[in-house]
């Protein structure tokens, strides 16, 4: 039970090796908090729609995202502020436009998993550089990613 905090080592335990392993995977509190924050960001259908749109279409500006997800520009801006604060999207200026994209490998991996159940196999997307659009030749979202 070398991975269990000292304050809990005197408590009754049935399987010390399993308790030790369970403690090990949650020992980095900052990483656990980050994962919880990302999952919280995914918990709202509007935010999830925005994330999926960015994940598959690539960099988009607020007005294009608003049209794509069926929300007002101000609602999309509000959601993007929260998603930026959570470290899930980043903004970059392109001339006078501000475009948004997915930020962080953890977020990308989660969106890959979610996409497998949300994005139907019959959906054919345009191939964009830096997106997860399905390649017409392969039919795979991930294979078209540049």
From TrEMBL:
The keyword Transcription regulation applies. CDD domains: HTH_ARSR. GO terms for molecular function: DNA binding; DNA-binding transcription factor activity. Residues 27-122 form the HTH arsR-type domain. InterPro entries: ArsR-like_HTH (IPR011991), HTH_ArsR_DNA-bd_dom (IPR001845), HTH_MetalResp_TranReg (IPR051081), WH-like_DNA-bd_sf (IPR036388), WH_DNA-bd_sf (IPR036390). Pfam families: HTH_5 (PF01022). Residues 127-146 are annotated as: Disordered. Keywords: DNA-binding, Transcription, Transcription regulation. It comes from the Bacteria. The keyword Transport does not apply. SMART domains: HTH_ARSR. Residues 134-146 have a biased composition (Low complexity). SUPFAM superfamilies: Winged helix' DNA-binding domain. PANTHER family: ARSENICAL RESISTANCE OPERON REPRESSOR, TRANSCRIPTIONAL REGULATOR, ARSR FAMILY. This is DNA-binding transcriptional regulator, ArsR family. It comes from Pseudonocardia thermophila. The lineage of its organism: Bacteria, Bacillati, Actinomycetota, Actinomycetes, Pseudonocardiales.
């Amino acid at each position: 039970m070398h991975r269990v905090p000292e304050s809990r080592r005197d408590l009754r335990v049935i399987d010390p090796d399993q308790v030790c392993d369970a403690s090990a995977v949650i020992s980095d509190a900052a990483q656990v908090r980050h994962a919880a924050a990302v999952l919280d960001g995914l918990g709202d259908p509007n935010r999830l729609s925005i994330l999926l749109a960015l994940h598959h279409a690539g960099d988009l500006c607020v007005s294009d995202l608003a049209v794509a997800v069926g929300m007002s520009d101000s609602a999309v801006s509000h959601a993007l502020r929260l998603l930026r604060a959570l470290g899930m999207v980043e903004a970059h200026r392109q001339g006078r436009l501000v475009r948004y994209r997915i930020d962080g490998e953890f977020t990308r991996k989660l969106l890959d998993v979610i996409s497998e159940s949300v994005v139907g196999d019959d959906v054919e997307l345009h191939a964009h550089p830096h997106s997860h659009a399905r390649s017409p030749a392969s039919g795979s979202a991930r294979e078209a990613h540049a």
